[in-house]
Specification:
By secondary structure, the chain is of the alpha/beta class. Helix content is 38%, strand content 14%. It is globular, with a radius of gyration of 24 Å. Bound molecules: nicotinamide-adenine-dinucleotide and uridine-5'-diphosphate-glucuronic acid.
């Protein structure tokens, strides 16, 4: 692979979501000589990316606003015009959604590849010259083959047909929401899976504009696709492991924070991903685990499938045990109780609510008749309303049994509340003055900290009863 000239001038990314948006913004920032265009079928999303009010961008990520502000309409473009962007592109990234199938073969487990497939068909139709296709979406092993077969129906793949040729590479994304820009600027590694040396070298040279060469791993396509699923499975497994131990800490008098610290100091275990919580959320861990379980069963590996399935079952159990514990604390009756929920995003520093543990925990409380008031610094009322059948009600109505309301005002959330539940670890919640805010609450008042972010001393002088994940009931009056 010597002396290959870098020939990429135009990049198109299909899918302007949580991966496409931040990833292309970082490429545009680091490659001023390359034109980067994001295309999406969703016109509203594209309008939001082009909104002059940068607070209205469809994705909230620390640092993203600055990159968009700096590069938009210079070498970073957002459009619904797929045809033109694809036909001009040297590289097309596919960053579309790959959710779990909800019907048909593999329903409830396999990933739905219809958006990947339709992207490949669009590329096949509009591409011109030689185009490198990069799978950025997380896909089941051997999806590249599906893409190749669609493309090959429109021409030869990288085999000298002079009008249209393609190379297909896998380069899965490992960014985490909330730290996406940092992760993209300084990744632990990037993978390039493929066979075509020219295409691999072009993509590698693109990454080398800001990523050291020793962090770029070249693998075969299937290893690259499977590494992505494996990484997410390992991360999710760590969370279910620590959550399982949080449940064991609570009745035994151990403290999960002390246990995490003790085991994390072992360099073979390491300190990351050892925070107990209300269960993992986000659009990917469950979906990718389900996909891996499906693949394992497909290859007749029932024990492997069962092993990974436990990670999901434990996660579901963690969410349920927390809502049950809250309801039982009120002797089984939360109707006519006002419960303030702090945080609805699946983690802090994102506006993403997909698979957020808050959804099922709040739903359980509503089904039991609680009056729930929700606050989140970045998630809108409209976004939250997608998850609940129960109608939300206005601020003036004080009787809202079994229904929910949104507020951006913490004083309103605390006023007359019987309990506060912390569900997302937003920094804002670290600064709550519990002694002052507790005066607004109805007695006896409760704090359930499912993220373990409140230090016990912060409650001094407050009279709030306190439960913390992995420690249990710390203070009861
Ligand atoms: P997303 O839903 O935020 O964005 C996907 C976008 O693709 C949507 O805006 C959708 O309208 C668009 N789209 C779908 N089909 C299209 C088509 N044919 N033409 C044009 N646009 C189309 O999804 P996401 O969170 O960005 O995830 C994308 C992929 O990346 C998934 O496979 C996911 O597993 C993977 N991934 C996600 C993350 C993450 O943190 N969200 C991290 C790593 C990998
Ligand atoms: C995760 C992976 O971390 C990324 O590497 C991967 O690219 C991405 O999935 C993906 O494929 O979509 P993300 O879901 O954005 O990223 O966020 P994480 O930081 O992994 O958190 C996932 C969930 O686990 C959140 O609900 C979070 O609160 C929870 N979590 C995380 C814990 O409960 N405890 C921890 O110690 C860490």
């Amino acid at each position: 692979m010597n002396n290959i000239t870098f020939l990429i001038k135009k990049i198109c990314c299909i899918g302007a979501g949580y991966v496409g948006g931040p990833t292309m913004s970082v490429i545009a920032e680091n490659c001023p000589d390359i034109n980067v265009t994001l295309v999406d079928l969703d016109e509203k999303k594209i309008n939001d990316w082009n909104n002059s009010d940068l607070n209205k961008l469809p994705v909230y990520e620390p640092g993203l606003k600055n990159l968009v502000e700096k590069n938009r309409n210079i070498n970073l473009f957002f459009t619904t015009n797929l045809n033109q962007s694809i036909s001009e592109a040297d590289i097309v990234f596919i960053s579309v959604n790959t959710p779990t199938k909800t019907n048909g073969l593999g329903s409830g487990y396999a990933s739905d590849l219809k958006w990947v497939e339709s992207s490949a068909r669009t590329v096949a139709k509009y591409a011109s010259g030689h185009t490198i296709i990069v799978e950025k979406s997380t896909v089941p092993v051997r999806t590249a083959e599906l893409i190749k077969s669609i493309l090959s129906s429109s021409c030869n793949i990288s085999e000298g047909n002079n009008s249209k040729t393609f190379s297909v590479l896998s380069s899965p994304e490992f960014l985490a929401e909330g730290t996406a820009i940092k992760d993209l600027e300084n990744p632990d590694r990037v993978l390039i899976g493929g066979e075509d040396e020219y295409a691999i070298e072009q993509l590698s040279l693109l990454y080398q504009k800001w990523i050291p060469k020793n962090k770029i791993f070249i693998t075969n396509v299937w290893s690259s696709e499977l590494s992505k699923l494996t990484a997410n499975a390992f991360l999710a497994q760590r969370i279910s492991s620590i959550n399982a131990m949080s449940a064991l800490c609570e009745p035994t008098g151990a403290d999960i924070k002390e246990v995490s610290r003790a085991i994390g100091a072992d360099s073979r275990i390491g300190t990351k991903f050892l925070n107990a919580g209300p269960g993992f959320g986000g659009s990917c861990f469950q979906k990718d685990l389900l996909n891996m379980i499906y693949l394992s069963r497909f290859y007749g590996l029932e024990e492997v499938a069962n092993y990974w399935e436990q990670v999901i079952l434990l996660n579901e159990w963690q969410k349920k045990r927390i809502s049950k514990l809250i309801i039982e604390t009120f002797y089984g009756t939360v109707s006519l109780k006002k419960i303030g929920v702090l945080g609805f995003a699946f983690k802090s520093n994102t506006n993403d609510t997909r698979e957020s543990p808050s959804i099922s925990i709040v739903n359980e409380l509503l089904e039991n008749g609680a009056s729930v008031v929700i606050h989140d610094p970045k998630v809108s009322e409209k976004q939250i309303s997608k998850f609940f059948d129960n109608e939300k009600i206005g601020q003036s109505n004080s009787n809202f049994e079994g229904r929910w309301r949104y507020t951006s005002d913490l004083n309103l959330l605390f006023k007359d509340a019987d309990a506060i539940i912390i569900l997302t670890e937003w920094e804002d919640y670290l600064h709550i003055k519990w002694k002052i805010m507790s005066k607004l609450m109805r007695k006896p008042s409760w704090l359930f900290d499912t993220r373990g972010i409140v230090e016990e001393e912060k409650l001094n002088g407050s009279n709030i009863n306190f439960w913390r994940v992995g420690k249990g009931f710390i203070k009861t009056t």
